[in-house]
C-alpha cells in the first residue's frame, strides 16, 4: 500500500521456460508486439542509466504542464531478459511475467520469484533483478509477475475485481504450474513478496510444496501483521492526499519521487509506467488528466484486512528458510517477536529507505537476498537452514 502504510504507522507511533511460447517477433499485429516484447515495454526511451547512488532528485517545476525530461520513462529491457503474457487458463488470466533465467536449468538452478505489493507491478523489482544478476554472477534467476488488476495482466472473467487473499494465492500457485508444469523440471524457488505480495507468497508456498515444487526460502518485505492492521483505519484519510491521475507519465514518476514514495528516481522511471494507463481520449470527465492508476488503491480497501490477518502465523509456519526485511526498526508484533527470539527467521533492517525498500535501495536488498540464497540453498551437510527446527 505504498508509503501510505508507513505514514499510517508513523502517525500511530510519534527469459521464460522453453515450454512457454514466445510471441512471434515477425507478427504483423503491431499492437500485440508492442504489448509483449520487452523492448517495447512502457517507457521505451533508451537503455537504462548507469547505477545511481539512489539520491533523491528534487522535482523542480512541478507546477509546469511540460513533462520534465529528468522523469522520462526508461525501458525495462536492460533489467529483464524477457517479458511475456502467460495464459493461466484455470484462472482465466493472461498474466504478464518478467524473467531473467539462471545459468543452470531445472533443480540445479534457482529463481527468485517476486510478487509486488498493492498498486504496483512486476516492474517494481526491475532494478533489484539487475542487481541480483550482478551479485550472483547470473546463477540466480529472477521472475516477477503482474497480479490480477495490476500492470499488464488481464482477465476473461468479471471476478477480476476480486483481490481477496484466497484469490491471489490461487492465482500465484496456478501461474507457477502454468510456467513449470513438471515440478521435477522446475528450478528451486526463493519466494519474495512485498507487503500484500509477502502475504501471498507465505501462504502459497505450502501449497506449492505439496505439489512437489522446491522452495528454498521465503522472504517477506516490510509487512508485519500487527502494524499493518493497526494502520488500516488511517488509510482512507491518507488516500485523500493521493492524486487520482496525472497529466503525463512523467508527472506520475515525478510525483512518486518528489513525495519520497519512491526514493530512487531510476527505479521509478522504469516501474511507474506499469502502474498507470492512458485515459480514453473520449473521456472528458477527468479534466486535464491523461493518465490514471491501473489499480486505484481506494478500490482495494475491502481486501486489506484479508491480506494481513494471519500473516505472522502463516510466515512462521512455512517449511523453508524464512527472512523478514523491514524498512525501519519498528517493533515486531508479539508472534514475530517470540519467533525471532526462538530463531525461527532471519531479520534484516534496511536503513534510509521507505516502504518500497526494494526500489529505494535495490542493491542492498539484492545483497541480503543473494546472501540468504547462498546460506540456505547451498546447504553444507550438517548445517541447518535458517528457520529449520
Automatic annotation (TrEMBL):
Acidic residues bias locations: 22-34
Residues annotated as the enzyme's active site: 195, 222, 355
Amino acid composition bias (Polar residues), ranges on this chain: 55-68
UniProt cross-references to InterPro entries, sorted A to Z: AB_hydrolase_1, AB_hydrolase_fold, PPase_methylesterase_euk
Keywords attached to this entry: Hydrolase, Serine esterase
Domain of life: Eukaryota
Pfam family, one: Abhydrolase_6
Entry EC number(s): 3.1.1.-
Region of interest called Disordered, as start-end residue ranges on this chain: 1-70
UniProt domain AB hydrolase-1: residue ranges: 112-367
Catalysed conversion reaction: [phosphatase 2A protein]-C-terminal L-leucine methyl ester + H2O = [phosphatase 2A protein]-C-terminal L-leucine + methanol + H(+)
KW Hydrolase (keyword) present: yes
Presence of keyword Hydrolase: yes
Signal peptide (residue range): none
GO molecular function, one term: protein methylesterase activity
Family listed: Belongs to the AB hydrolase superfamily.
Main function: Demethylates proteins that have been reversibly carboxymethylated.
Designated name of the protein: Protein phosphatase methylesterase 1
Naturally occurring in which organism (per UniProt): Pterulicium gracile
Lineage of source species: Eukaryota, Fungi, Dikarya, Basidiomycota, Agaricomycotina
